[in-house]
Amino acid sequence: MMKSQVLRFGLVGVAGYGVDSGVLYGALALGLGPAWGRLLSFLCAVATTWLLNRRFTFDPQAQSHGTQSLIQEALRYLGAMLIGGVLNLITYGWIMQTMPSYPALPALAVAAGSLVGMVANFAGAKFWVFQHRKINEPCSND
């Protein structure tokens, strides 16, 4: 089960990367600059990956046990992603500052940052945000 979750988490991450890079390049074209553009793109990617991970990665057949609302879950997800996000943004900034500029550099910097933050993000999502979800099991009359 863990291997399939890691695989699905990675695939969702690829979708998040697409959103992240697309929004970043759009923000850069609008003149936001690499820092503000990256902040906006990161938030859009977090929203996208939360929706996809809750549906496809962490047992779509599961039920939420407890009182956590969608807003609480989304805020917990954002909080969990901040650790990986900080690692992601530090890596992105370091690459953008130290590498010679060329058109693909922002996309490559986003990819490197995403890889660095992925382990922390998976652990936070699995063991903190979605840990309350239980697999639907048929009732037994033992």
Give short descriptive properties of this protein:
142 residues, two-stranded antiparallel ribbon, mainly alpha, single chain, 4 helices, disordered C terminus, 2 strands
Rg measurement, Å? 17 Å
Cα shape: elongated
Helix content percent band: over 70%
Strand order of the largest sheet: 1-2
Describe the main β-sheet briefly: 2 strands, antiparallel
Which H/E pattern describes the elements? Answer: HHEHHE
**Mean pLDDT over the residues:** 85
Number of domains: 1
Number of distinct beta strands: 2
Query: What distance lies between the first and last C-alpha atoms, to the nearest angstrom?
Result: 27 Å
Continuous helix count: 4
Question: Beta fraction of the residues?
Answer: under 5%
Structural class: mainly alpha
State the low-pLDDT regions, or none.
136-142
Topology, please?
Layout: H1 2-29, H2 33-57, E1 63-64, H3 70-98, H4 105-129, E2 133-134
Antiparallel strand pairs: 1-2
Structure description:
The chain is an all-alpha fold and 142 residues long. The chain is 75% helix and 3% strand. Strands 1-2 form a two-stranded antiparallel sheet. It is elongated. The two termini are 27 Å apart. Mean pLDDT is 85; it is low at 136-142.
Summarize the structure.
With 142 residues, the protein is mainly alpha-helical. It is 75% helix and 3% strand.
